């Protein structure tokens, strides 16, 4: 069998009730397309794996984790094992509709888009616990990262394989996948997709994730601006702190030369802290630069991504 056109990665965690209708919907929707299905079980404690083994067809592979690692890690594993030209990601709760995949694939091919993101139309979730926190998070991410998508929480997306396989997923960064894709230079668009109420199982999301999202956003902003040049932020802050500290201490020196007693003045402590803090920030920036250099050179990673290489042949006489 040759390379499939798409690889569909579905993350599963305790979804035994959704497995039969999910697989039926996927197999029916993708019948006209060359595809492979990768089901990633994220340490389910119910009968999800057993049902997948019974119902899976010959185009399906099942990856089973030995414990629960989280959605981001499950997505990373699925993407790592994908062989398709395009990679589709979706949740296994059946709120995403596999019937939207052919439409999204057609849009990606016609527009030569690197990423087509789903935008949940008529979202079937509780307003207070799900929709409102999601709207706030979407606005915050859009405003700070300047990656203008409407729905960061929709996991139904399609990517060109080279984009998906170079995003470097880890931790709990699945909500920020579009930001990671943009860092790879991806051209993105979004399209309305269907959203269904959850019929089986319970939601794995809630208000408790809000603070984690904010913490991850801070990390993403740092990655977006300073990942390859950490000295720019640490060095700038360090030089500013050092300069203020020198000015404060110079002022105190003048005061001392004029006969003033400066030994008990709090500003002396402030000046010392600013100088030491500046030195420490600059040193941290230098160490971070060495770590980044080691990260790239030790793994033979490139600091760039090529979209294409064109070889212009010589014209014959």
Automatic annotation (TrEMBL):
Coiled coil: none annotated. The keyword Ribosomal protein does not apply. Gene3D superfamilies: Spore Coat Polysaccharide Biosynthesis Protein SpsA, Chain A (3.90.550.10). GO terms for molecular function: undecaprenyl-phosphate 4-deoxy-4-formamido-L-arabinose transferase activity. Keywords: Cell membrane, Glycosyltransferase, Lipopolysaccharide biosynthesis, Membrane, Transferase, Transmembrane, Transmembrane helix. The chain crosses the membrane at residues 231-254, 266-292. One of its GO terms (biological process) is lipopolysaccharide biosynthetic process. PANTHER family: UNDECAPRENYL-PHOSPHATE 4-DEOXY-4-FORMAMIDO-L-ARABINOSE TRANSFERASE, UNDECAPRENYL-PHOSPHATE 4-DEOXY-4-FORMAMIDO-L-ARABINOSE TRANSFERASE-RELATED. This is Glycosyltransferase involved in cell wall bisynthesis. It comes from Cyclobacterium lianum.
């Amino acid at each position: 069998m040759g390379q499939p056109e798409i690889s569909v990665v579905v993350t599963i965690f305790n979804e035994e009730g959704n497995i039969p209708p999910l697989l039926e919907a996927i197999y029916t929707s993708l019948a006209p397309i060359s595809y492979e299905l990768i089901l990633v079980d994220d340490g389910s404690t119910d009968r999800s794996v057993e049902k997948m083994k019974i119902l899976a067809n010959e185009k399906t592979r099942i990856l089973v984790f030995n414990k629960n690692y989280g959605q981001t890690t499950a997505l990373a594993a699925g993407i790592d094992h994908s062989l398709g030209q395009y990679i589709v990601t979706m949740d296994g709760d059946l709120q995403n509709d596999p019937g939207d995949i052919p439409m999204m694939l057609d849009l990606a091919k016609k527009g030569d888009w690197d990423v087509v993101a789903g935008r949940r139309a008529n979202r079937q979730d509780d307003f207070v616990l799900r929709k409102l926190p999601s709207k706030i998070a979407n606005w915050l991410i859009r405003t700070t990262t300047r990656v203008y998508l409407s729905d960061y929480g929709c996991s139904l997306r399609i990517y060109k394989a080279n984009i998906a396989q170079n995003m470097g997923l880890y931790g709990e960064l699945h909500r920020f996948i579009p930001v990671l894709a943009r860092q790879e230079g991806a051209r993105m668009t979004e399209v309305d997709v269907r959203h269904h109420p959850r019929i089986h199982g319970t939601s794995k999301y809630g208000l408790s994730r809000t603070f984690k999202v904010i913490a991850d956003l801070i990390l993403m902003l740092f990655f977006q601006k300073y990942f390859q040049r950490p000295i720019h932020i640490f060095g700038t802050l360090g030089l500013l702190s050092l300069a203020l500290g020198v000015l404060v201490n110079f002022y105190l020196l003048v005061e001392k030369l004029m006969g003033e007693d400066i030994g008990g003045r709090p500003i002396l402590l402030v000046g010392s802290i600013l100088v030491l803090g500046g030195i420490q920030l600059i040193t941290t920036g230098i160490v971070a630069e060495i770590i980044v250099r080691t990260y790239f050179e030790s793994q033979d990673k490139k600091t760039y991504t090529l979209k294409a290489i064109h070889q212009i042949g010589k014209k014959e006489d």
